């Protein structure tokens, strides 16, 4: 059987390098590509330089909102493919509303998470709203301890990987999601982090069908924070 040049090269490299080395190189190449997308979107963002009352959605994926600036480094459907770990290309107090859903837990804590929140506070106008939904990790822990059947029923409906069979497997899946989830929050911890970034008004809020995704309603902790005058 004839082996293609690409397949021969892949086998050659695999036989002579460690898995960790190949993962590191792959990650570096990915970051080069993402850096290019980010820089291109920085130029696109110049059109918002003079605008006020902007509404920003971070981590939009394929779910974009009309009248919003939809931001997602990995989505071609986004208006801007910006890296939210870096400073935002928006003016101070130029934004009225910032929203994200199941995005914040993908940022490393504390550096990336606090950078994102402090930048959000900077660009928000006075009385601007920061609205967010994240996985309710407190629910995950409570269900692990009590054996909450409702939690495990929803987990099974999501068609977990085959290796997820025990309650601890489910807990690890929630906390880690492969390598995607970087930190787990409950309301108390999330409030503390928001306070550190400058937000002094943080409350739980109910699911909002006009803002949030219906398929995310169960198992999501929704909060709303405001930028109040100092």
Describe what you observe in this structure.
The chain is an alpha/beta fold and 230 residues long. The chain has a domain at 49-136 and 186-226: Rossmann fold. The chain is 40% helix and 17% strand. It has seven helices and six strands. The chain has helices spanning 5-16, 19-44, 111-123, 137-146, 149-157, 167-176, 187-197, and strands spanning 54-58, 69-71, 95-101, 124-135, 201-204, 220-226. Strands 2-1-3-4-6-5 form a six-stranded mixed sheet. Helix 4 runs antiparallel to helix 6 (167-176). The longest helix has 26 residues, at 19-44. The N and C termini lie far apart (72 Å).
CATH topology-level fold name of the domain at 49-136 and 186-226: Rossmann fold
Terminal Cα separation, in Å? 72 Å
Shape: globular
Query: Can you name the CATH architecture of the domain at 49-136 and 186-226?
Result: 3-Layer(aba) Sandwich
The number of distinct β-strands equals 6
Q: Enumerate how many helices there are, as a single number.
A: 7
The mean pLDDT is 93
Q: What is the percentage of strand-forming residues?
A: 15-25%
CATH superfamily of the domain at 49-136 and 186-226: Vaccinia Virus protein VP39
**CATH hierarchy class name of the domain at 49-136 and 186-226:** Alpha Beta
Strands side by side in the biggest sheet: 2-1-3-4-6-5
Percentage of helical residues?
25-40%
- Main sheet specs: 6 strands, mixed
| Estimated structural class | alpha/beta
Write the H/E string, N to C.
Answer: HHEEEHEHHHHEE
Spans of at least 5 consecutive residues whose pLDDT stays below 50 are: none
